[in-house]
């Protein structure tokens, strides 16, 4: 118990004194995950809209597929990407393995099904008269699409935040395709795994506190936007 308390004190000291290595790791985590969400979100919302407002053969199967992909473990995604990006893989000539770009690709694959599934639920629940009225008034389809998104913006913002929360704490994909290289691909989850294995608990606890604080902030934000979505009485 005493060792745990001492490690926690050291962790707080590392955070409060602005330890350069620690904050660089945190910066890599946020940079990679924000890029992944920024790339995946617009495409995912377009797919969610098409699934909600168009009818075509196999649509129900696609919806089920995206829902099923929510449960795929991160380490499985990491394994598949490793095989694709390794020198002997079909994408080996791109030399992406053990780079931040590979980590971004992995996190896009992880968060995309979640963004589509939650975006689909949000858009499908919207009043269809919003879309129909915009089209009737002469709006182009692109403009009507943006009008619909604006009406359900709080739910979509909550969806994007949930997607970010899904990938900021994942370790399997980042470890396998990023390689956990200090100063380049070592992010918060992979650093925690490494430091814990080394018995260096102070930095692991410090980074864990960052993730816990982030999770709390994200949950509060999602709850805020969910309240904004509730009908006013």
Name the descriptors.
mainly alpha; MetI-like fold; 233 residues
List the helices and strands and how they pair.
Elements: H1 2-16, H2 20-53, H3 59-69, H4 74-85, H5 100-124, H6 128-136, H7 141-151, H8 153-168, H9 172-178, H10 188-198, H11 201-229
Helix and strand run: HHHHHHHHHHH
Shape type: globular
Helical segment count: 11
Contiguous low-pLDDT stretches (5 residues minimum) are none
Structurally, the number of domains stands at: 1
Summarize the amount of helix as a percent range. Answer: over 70%
Largest sheet: none
Mean pLDDT over all positions: 89
Query: CATH H level: which superfamily?
Result: MetI-like
Distance between the termini: 51 Å
CATH fold group: MetI-like fold
Radius of gyration: 21 Å
Give me the count of strands: 0
Second-tier CATH architecture: Orthogonal Bundle
What is the percentage of strand-forming residues?
under 5%
Structural class: mainly alpha
* CATH class assignment: Mainly Alpha
Note down, in words, how this protein is organized:
By secondary structure, this protein is an all-alpha fold. The protein has a single domain, classed as MetI-like fold, CATH 1.10.3720.10. 77% of the residues lie in helices and 0% in strands. The chain contains eleven helices and no strands. Helix 2 packs across helix 8. The chain is globular.
What does this entry show, briefly?
By secondary structure, the protein is mainly α.
């Amino acid at each position: 118990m005493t060792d745990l308390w001492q490690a926690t004190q050291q962790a707080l000291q590392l955070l409060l004194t602005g330890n350069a290595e620690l904050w660089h790791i945190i910066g890599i985590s946020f940079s990679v995950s924000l890029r992944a969400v920024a790339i995946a979100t617009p495409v995912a919302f377009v797919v969610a809209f098409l699934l909600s407002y168009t009818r075509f053969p196999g649509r129900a199967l696609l919806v089920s597929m995206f829902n099923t992909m929510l449960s795929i473990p991160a380490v499985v995604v990491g394994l598949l990407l490793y095989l694709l990006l390794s020198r002997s893989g079909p994408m080996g000539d791109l030399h992406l393995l053990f780079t931040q770009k590979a980590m971004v690709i992995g996190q896009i694959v992880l968060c995309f099904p979640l963004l589509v599934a939650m975006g689909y639920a949000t858009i499908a629940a919207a009043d269809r008269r919003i879309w129909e009225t915009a089209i009737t008034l002469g709006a182009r389809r692109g403009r009507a699409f943006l009008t619909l998104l604006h009406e359900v913006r709080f739910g979509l913002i909550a969806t994007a935040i949930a997607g970010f929360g899904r990938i900021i704490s994942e370790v399997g994909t980042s470890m396998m395709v990023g390689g956990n290289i200090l100063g380049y691909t070592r992010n918060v989850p992979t650093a925690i795994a490494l430091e814990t294995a080394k018995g260096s608990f102070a930095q692991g606890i410090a980074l864990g506190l960052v993730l816990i604080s982030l999770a709390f902030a994200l949950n509060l934000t999602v709850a805020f936007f969910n309240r904004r979505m509730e009908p006013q009485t």
